[in-house]
Write a structure and sequence with these properties.
single chain; 116 residues; alpha+beta; Ribosomal Protein S5, domain 2; 4-stranded mixed sheet; 4 strands; 39% helix; globular
Length: 116
Amino acid sequence: MIAKLYRLRETEVKKVLRKGKPFFSYGLVLNALPNGLEYNRFAIVISGKSVNGSVERNYFRRLFYSTVVDFLETKKGQDCVFVVKAKTKLERDEKKVSESLKKDILFLLSKIDTKK
């Protein structure tokens, strides 16, 4: 888990989803919005249709935060909200799904690093 400083609150997530610039990958959508701060903040939205139960959802949330921890200080001042697409089914038992999720996250983070 990352520090609370680097996480977005619910109202901030809604603002980023409304006004942020979207970037797309196979299973995820990233909405990014400049925040005027010296650090990046992150959030992930995982619907109940993508996973079976809160234990699975929290597992993928922890996986997400462990993946983005390296990007906390790379590009300054971005609020990033990742949304798992509804058609994407996440299964904890399948290693392939976890690797695919990590790959999508890293791909989308590289997209916002190249955009100015």
